[in-house]
Amino acid sequence: MSLLTVGHRGLMGVEPENTLRSFRRAEREAVDVIELDLHLSKDGALVVMHDADVTRTTDGGGPVSDFTLDQLRALDAGQGERVPTFDEVVEATSLPLQAEIKDRDAAQVLARRIQELDLHQRVTVISFHDEALRETRRLLPQMPLVLVAGKSSPTAPDRARELGADMVSLELRWLTPEIVERAHSLGIRVISWTVNTPEDLQRVTELGLDGVVTDMPAIRRATEKLAAS
Questions:
Q1: Which end of the chain, N or C, is less packed with Cβ atoms under 10 Å?
Q2: Mind telling me the catalytic residues?
């Protein structure tokens, strides 16, 4: 059984999330894809951070949008790491990227960078927000899209079809065989977050999923064993 393995914010179970250190660790551990999150700084830079506020993951406080890029770079994002830009991640790693966007403004800036850097074959745009994916589809008609969902997972396959997404990334606790069957019947692959334990991975195999999003190197190694068995 071959499963796509996506490193969640790099490999945030063992490194500071959404940092170059975390992304490089994910590449060393040979995940298939690196997932990252994007926000816009006050001066319009595409910066890599999950939350809309810097408080949880840095030594600063306040909304990301209140900081210029230079101010964000002055923050400690864990173990001396700095808040990276999207461009820096592209340069620091060679793996495919799943870039998560939160709104239409970020979608527009990301689409521009994808075009300027010719990343159409390397980046997949993902989001919880239909409008962000719809804007990406408008700007980049051929761009691969992934719809992310938690509690709304039962509606995700049909929403993904409407958006032109060929994959859904769904929270494991909300997944049912019926959701997976519906997605597969529409030709949509299903991956799940966040798969961090052997019990989680067993559930993935029972459901017949196509991949996992994980924080942990051990899960990547376990998927290799599954593929070899």
A1: C
A2: 8, 50
